[in-house]
Amino acid sequence: MRSLHFPSSLRAPSFLALLAIFAVAVASTGCDSRFEDVNDNPNEPKEVTPNLLLPDIIRGSVNTSVNTAHTTGNLVLQYTAKVSFATEIDRYNWAGVGYWQPLYGDLRNVEDMIQIAQERDQPQYEGVGLVLKSWIFSMLTNAYGDVPYSESVAVQEGIETPKYDRQEAIYRGMLADLRRANELLTPGSGSIQGDILYDGDLMKWKKLANSLRLRLLMRLSEKDISLNLDGDEVSVRDAFQSITSAPETAPVFTSNDDNAALEYLDSRPNEWPRHTSRIGTFRTFRLSETLTDTLKHFDDPRLSVFGDPTAASVEDGSPKFVGVPNGLTNDASDGFNGGRDFQSGLNFTRYYDEPDAAKGLIMTYAEVLFLKAEAAERGWISSDAQTHYREAVKASFEQYGQSTPPGYFGQAGVSYPTNNSAQARERIGTQKWIALFYTGLEGWFNWRRTGIPDIDPSVENVNGDEIPVRFRYPESEQSLNADNYQAALDRQGPNSINTEMWLLE
Questions:
Q1: pLDDT digit string (tens) for 75-99?
Q2: Distances 12 to 18, 21, 22, 25, 433 between C-alpha atoms, Å
Q3: Where on the phi/psi map is residue 231: left (φ > 0), alpha (ψ -120 to 50), or beta?
Q4: Among 81, 198, 415, 465, which residue carries the largest CB count within 10 Å?
C-alpha cells in the first residue's frame, strides 16, 4: 500500500488539534448514515446468504468424515492398523470416540441455509441443503442409533433439550427430504454459488440425492417396513426399483465424473485435513494385515494406491507390502515383523504429504453400481447382477487411475458365481469393502448389515472379542439432556458400543 505524503506545514498535527477537528466534523454531520456506508467492511457481511454458508458446511462435514475414517473407521474395518502408541481405539477402547458435536454444529448451519433459501425463494439452495442434511443425519443415526432429529436445532423455538427420535422415523425423514431435493433440483431452479463440491452443477446434486436414497434403502434391506411413495405405501424393494427404473426423473450416478468427492487445494483452509496433523502420529497408522493380504492375493493394483511398500524392501530394491495385525499392544505392534521399517504404512504422498492428492469421499459411482448389483442379486431389480458387479470393480479401479488387470475377474474369490446367490453376495460385499476405503464410516456401516467381509476381532481387544457396532452417546448428553437421553436408552439398551440399534435388530 502506497503511503501518503503531506506538506510539512500539515504534517504531524498535535493530538489535541486532531481531536478538535474530529469533534467539529462530528457536530456538523450528526448521525449521517453515510459514515456507516463508507466504513462497511466487505469481509464482514451484515446479511448471511446461502452461498456464504454452503462452503463451510461442505468443508466441515466432509473433513469430519475424513478424520473419523482415519482415526476409527479404517481401524475397525481393518483397512489400517495402529502401532507404537495410543493403540486403544484399534483394541476397541472407544471412550470418547465419535463425531456428535461437529456434525450437529454443521447441521445448525444447514438448517439456517434451508430457512434462508425458503424465505428468498431459492429452491436450488433448499435442495442442496436437504441433500447435505440427509447425508449428515445418516452419519449420525448410523453411528449412534436414535438421535435428536426433529428438534435437533430448535433452540430458536425455545427447545434446548431436544428429544431423541426413533431411528426408523429418522430414516423416513431422510428419504422424504431426499425425494423433495430431487424435485427441487431442476435446471430452472437457479444457479448455485459457493459450491466447492460440484461447482454449481445442479444435475450432479440431483444425482447425489437419488444415489443417497439407494444407499439408505439398501441399509433397510433387512427391515420389513413399508414407505410412503406418492401417497402409496410400498416396500423397500419397490422404493428402490422406483428410482432405478426412472433415470430421467430420478437420475443417479452414471460415471466417476458424478462422484461426490471434495477436491482439496494446496492452501488452508482447503487442504486434505490429515495434511495438517503431526507427521509422527500419521506414521503410526499402518496398512492392516487383513486388507494387505486380500489385495496381495488378488494381485490388486489398488494396494499401491492405498499404501506404501516397507521402507526396508524399497531400500533393498525389491518393494513388498507387509500389513500389521489389528489390535496388537503398543510393544507388540511396534516390534511386529522387525519394526517400522518392515511394515507398510498408508500411502504417505497421497494421504499426508501432498495437501491436494486425496479427495474427501461422500459417495462414488462404484458404490452405486455395487448397490445395483446387490439389488439385482436380491431380485429387487431385473438387471444383471454380474454386469453391475464387474462395472463396479472397474469403476473403483478407474477412480484411482488404475486399469483393471487382465484376468482379474477370473480369479478365485473374484469371479462371479451365477448359480450361488450367497457366494455372489460375498463377492459383491468383499469388493465393495475394498472400494469403500477411506469413505467415512461406510465400510463399517455396510459390514454391520452384511457381515462381509468375514473379519476377526482385533487380536488384543478389550471388548470381549466383539467388534463394536455403534458409538456411545457423548457424556455431555447425560447431564445436559438427561431425560431424553434416558428415554433413548430405555428404547435401545445400554449406552454401550455393543448395543444393537434398530437397523441391526
A1: 999 999 999 888 999 999 999 999 9
A2: 9, 14, 15, 19, 72
A3: left
A4: 81
Distance of CA 410 to the CA centre of its chain: 33
Cell, residue 315: 531400500
Amino acid at 418: T
Helix (H, G, I), strand (E, B) or coil at 410: helix
Q: What is the pLDDT of residue 190?
A: 85
Q: Report how far residue 219's alpha carbon sits from residue 434's, in angstroms, rounded to the nearest whole number.
A: 18
Separation CA 85–CA 334 (nearest Å): 8
Q: Do the Cβ atoms of 195 and 132 come closer than 8 Å?
A: no
Helices (H) and strands (E) in the chain, counts: 21, 8
CATH code of domain 50-260+359-491: 1.25.40.390
CA distances from 452 to 59, 77, 220, 446 (A): 31, 10, 16, 8
Q: What is the pLDDT of residue 85?
A: 82
Is the backbone peptide bond immediately before 42 cis, with ω within 30 degrees of 0?
no
The C-alpha cell that represents 277 in the structure block:
496433523
Cβ 143 vs Cβ 448: under 8 Å: no
Q: Which of 309, 296, 306 is nearest to 341 (CA)?
A: 309
SS (H, E, C) 81-115: EECCCCCCHHHCCCCCCCCHHHHHHHHHHHHHHHH
What integer pLDDT is reported at residue 18 of this predicted model? 35
Distance between CA atoms of 140 and 171, rounded to whole angstroms? 11
CA-based nearest residue to 120, from 36, 53, 204: 53
The size of the chain, in residues, is 505
What are the Cα distances from residue 423, in Å, to 379, 419, 447? 15, 9, 16
| Three cell numbers written together for 411 | 480369479
Say what the pLDDT of residue 159 is: 87
* Amino acid at residue number 100: W
What 3-state class would DSSP assign to 263? strand
Contact 343, 322 (CB under 8 A): yes
Distance CA 38, CA 358 (A): 44
Residue type, 307: G
Q: What are the residue ranges in the chain where pLDDT is below 50?
A: 1-38
What H or E segment, with its residue span, contains residue 178?
Answer: helix 167-184
